[in-house]
Hints:
Helix 2 (13-38) packs antiparallel against helix 3 and helix 5 (110-124) runs antiparallel to helix 6 (130-151). By secondary structure, this protein is mainly alpha-helical. The model has no long low-confidence stretch (mean pLDDT 93). It starts with a helix and ends with a helix. The chain folds into two domains: 10-83; 85-164, no CATH class. It has a two-stranded antiparallel sheet. A two-stranded antiparallel sheet has the order 2-3. It is 71% helix and 7% strand. It is flat, with a radius of gyration of 24 Å.
Amino acid sequence: MEGQQEGRAAIRQKSAEIGVAALFLLAGAIVVYDSVRLGVKWAEEGPEAGYFPFYIGLILCISAFINLGTALVARGDSGTAFVEVGQLKLVLAVLVPTSAYVALIGWLGIYVASILFIGFFMRWLGKYSWWKLAAVSIGNSVFFFVIFEVWFRIPLPKGPLEAMLGLN
C-alpha cells in the first residue's frame, strides 16, 4: 500500500497553477497597496517613491489574473500530477529542517544553529559516526567564525553561548 501512495499525486497541476497565480496576485496587490501609500505620482522633482514599484505590482497583478483565468478555464490535463507523494516527502524532508534552522538562528545564533543543522543532516541522512559529525559541524562553524568575525570583521547573529564565551 505504501508503494502505491508514493506514486499518487499529492498536488495536481491545475491546483498548483491556481495556487501560484493567487500568490503572485497577492504579492502584486501588496506592492500596489504599499506603492500608493508611498505616492505614485510624478512630482516636480521626479517620480515619487512608489511610482516604479506601483507599475511593477500592476504588471504582476495583470499577469497573475491572466494565469489564474487560464488555469481556471483549462480543461485538458486536469488530472496531471504536479508533484507526487514520494517527491513531496523528499522536498519536505529538507524544507522542514531548513525552516527550523532559520528559526533557530535568531534564538541560538548562526554558529550553534549551524552546528545543529549540519549535525542533524549528517546523522539522519548520512548515518555518519558521532565523532565525524562533531568534527565537521563544529569545524565548519569555527571556520566561518574566523573568516567572518575575525578576518572580515562582519558580525553575524550570535546567541547565548557566544555571550557566555564573551564573543559578542
